[in-house]
Amino acid sequence: xxxxxxxxxxxxxxxxxxRLSCAASGFTFSNHWMSWVRQAPGKGLEWVANxxxxxxxxxxxxxxxxxxxxxxxxxxxxxxxxxxxxxxxDTAVYYCARSPAGVPAAHFDYWGQGTLVTVxx
Amino acid sequence: EIVLTQSPGTLSLxxxxxxxxxxxxxxxxxxxxxxxxxQKPGQAPRLLIYGASSxxxxxxxxFSGSGSGxxxxxxxxxxxxxxxxxxxxQQYGTSWTFGQGTKVEIK
Lengths: 121, 107
What we know:
The complex is a heterodimer. By secondary structure, chain A is an all-beta fold. Chain A is 0% helix and 48% strand. In chain A, strands 2, 4, 5, 6, 9, 10 and 11 form a 7-stranded mixed sheet that branches. Chain A has a 4-stranded antiparallel sheet with strand order 1-3-8-7, with no helix packed on it. Helix content of chain B is 0%, strand content 50%. At the A-B interface, strand 5 and strand 10 of A face strand 4, strand 5 and strand 10 of B.
């Protein structure tokens, strides 16, 4: 069974940093592009970043470029999101999501349950 | 950036009725790289449709997707009680963007 379990969320002050993790199981992690998608309270979905299965390509939404860094450790079946210079507008539930194997630009076929990040003083 | 506009914002229907949700793109979506997701309160999104018209694994055949270019549609042929939820379209042909969502509520 495919499982994606996020952790690392919490309350952080504006300008602070946080590192999110996503532990994957039930599939060959190293075969899949992986993404982070967020959802502000009461709002819609926003794609944040994604990374190729081998780590050689990564992409970001414009609003987080230069502040967030996506990474992965295929040996640990884990995806990460390092978030620096956090702003109030980064407050959201952050989901880890998987794309189907072997597809470079794709939809998200499995999602984790999300971890809440709150940026507030 | 491709902007996706979903309509209507809210759809009020009764169980057994047909639901038709629209997703319009600001420019053509290449190779019909469009997906639909369902989200219920407090839950993660669930993939329904990808490639504009292919149903994801385990999705009932009352859900169908159609369209190409800039106009796409999600149809639920007969609403079941569990279908009342938020629905989002997403394009993945040029970067990745979502529509703002359509809420399907019980009339």
